[in-house]
Amino acid sequence: MRLFKQRNFTLLFGGQTISTFGDALYMVALPWLILTTGGNVQELGVVLSAYGIPRALCMLAGGWLSDRLRPRRLMLIADTLRLLLMGVLAALAFGGHPPLWQLCAIAVPLGALGGAFTPASMSMVPDILGKDELQAGNGLMMASMQGANLIGSSVAGVIVAGLTSAGTLALDAITFLVSAGSLALMRGTTHATPDASQAETSQAHPQASAQDAETQISFWGFLRTSRLIQIALFMFIVSSLVTGGLIEVALPALVQGPMHGSASGFGFIMGGWGGGALIGSILVGMLGKYKHKGLIILLGGFIIAAMFALLPVGGVPGAVVCMLIAAIASSGFSVLFFTAVQMNIPSHLMGRVMGLLMFSSFGLYPVSTILTGVLANHYGPVIIFPIDGIVLAVVMLFGLTQKVLREL
């Protein structure tokens, strides 16, 4: 593909694919290290919280730093520091069972750096590609992330068994080295999006659009005037509240309970989600431009809503099909929506807006899981799926009423 003829994109694609593979190894190696060297489930929960909470909170700060330092520089700093931290963690693991305070002392900065890295990585594709290449670039990057995560999760157990948890963590450290090296080898970026940002701004306040380049609109000013960003925030927040708890809490409870399924059945269902996400990312990146992008985004949302609502009906096989279709639609929804949003963000605000959108997607994950757990405990897991489907459908109906989204 012609995108791989561009040095910067090829380096970004390769480095981030390998780094994501390492992240998948980490998510298996760390729990295995704790649980097989004298630790317990409570300690595991503490360490994962020490990683997850700073990661979510630092997405906002990471967006600000990305705009100040530029995305590539922040990503390079974050990867270099994560390389050192992961190396220390691997060394501690080789020495036996690290005490809880040491694990937390490493998990907190690892999570914070991961959170800062996320909005910068989301800002890199529009920083190195022109607007005509943005959709294909986003699709390929998302496909590589999904594929690397799917493969990494599948082989992580084998690698941990062969190399031990400590060896696997050392391998993860090497993936950070590869990622940092690929970033260091990049040439100057193009900052491709400033002109594209005027499209949305001209709809919001036509008289000011010609002066945007000179006035350098502020972050808060942009949020107040960009209807598209306001809609995106609302839709991401609701989607995060619906999806996180449904997949992580309601779905396993449904399979183990009313469906009378097994762990392998649950694995097949999650495999359908992972495979569908990969297929959807590849398809949306290959199919080129769309004339009615906003309507396609909303159609994807309606498909996701329908699949979630129908998921409990057909047993495990039906759930696999529903998750596969929902994931294909979800990936298409995400790539198209993120591309449309990126093309309407001034380049000097890209990191901060991406950080806010990422926080709206990931920051509410604990709220979603807790809320879903309470509802499933009182009313059973089955009812969660049609309720969440209805909520998503209502959000898509709201999107249909928004001219700026319909006319993308």
UniProtKB/TrEMBL annotation:
GO terms for MF: transmembrane transporter activity
Segments traversing the membrane: 12-34, 46-65, 74-94, 231-254, 266-287, 294-312, 318-341, 353-376, 382-400
Check the record and name the InterPro entries matching this protein. MFS, MFS_dom, MFS_trans_sf
Report the GO terms under cellular component. Answer: plasma membrane
Q: How does it sit in the membrane?
A: Multi-pass membrane protein
Q: Entry's Pfam families?
A: MFS_1
Which domain of life does the UniProt lineage start with?
A: Bacteria
**What sequence ranges are listed for the domain Major facilitator superfamily (MFS) profile?**
8-404
Q: Which UniProt keywords apply?
A: Cell membrane, Membrane, Transmembrane, Transmembrane helix
What subcellular locations does the record give? Cell membrane
PANTHER family according to UniProt: INTEGRAL MEMBRANE EFFLUX PROTEIN-RELATED, STAPHYLOFERRIN A TRANSPORTER
Q: What is this protein called?
A: MFS transporter
